Amino acid sequence: MNKKITTAILMGSVALALAACGNPAANDKVQEPEASQAQEQKADMQKSDANSFKTIFQDSVFLGDSITEGLSFHDVLNEKNVLAGAGKTAEFSLKDIAELTKRNPKQVFIQLGSDDILWRADDPIAYSMKNYAKLIGMIKEKLPQTRITLLSVTPVTEDAIKMEPRYKNIGDYNQAVKELAGKEGASFVDLSPIFSNSPDFYDADGIHFKPDYYTKLLELLKEQTK
């Protein structure tokens, strides 16, 4: 009799142990779909935002350098709404006038300067402003009904400045762009509020950006389209 009781107790203990071991796995199975669902919801929201921005800015063109090019690279805007490329300066962008005219946007956002301040000239800012003014003049001539908005150059990280000290001139360049906008009757938008809380928008080089930055950028600029 005692042998039977002992055997029953032992079997019961094994069953309880197996049940206990099974609980974490069961919990994991409950949590994994929740985590997956949260990721899917986030992806759906990002896709929804992207589609919304593509509609809001469907009649706009963003003209600029590799910073601006990120808008289409990260599929935040369609390629037809972005006319940009690595190394673009105000001078080099003069060659884009024909293509810009062909696209005939209602509004053009211009963001140049990240490469201009690295230009090897006696006064890179003055040289850039001369060509920037010429660029605006050509847009006015070819597209007189198009609204022009100038955007400030985005800041870089401290590490990027250590690698390239000329980035210290971004503030002076932005002041020159603001004054140029006033002189030429264009709008000017300071993008510094996007970085007020120092979010982790930067790619590894401390100059270019992750997709989240472009969402914040367009959120800031959408009022300009009204």
From TrEMBL:
SGNH hydrolase-type esterase domain boundaries: 62-214
Signal peptide: 1-19
Assigned keywords, A-Z: Signal
Keyword Cell division in record: no
PANTHER family linked to this entry: THIOESTERASE 1/PROTEASE 1/LYSOPHOSPHOLIPASE L1
Name this polypeptide is given: Lipase
Origin organism lineage: Bacteria, Bacillati, Bacillota, Bacilli, Bacillales
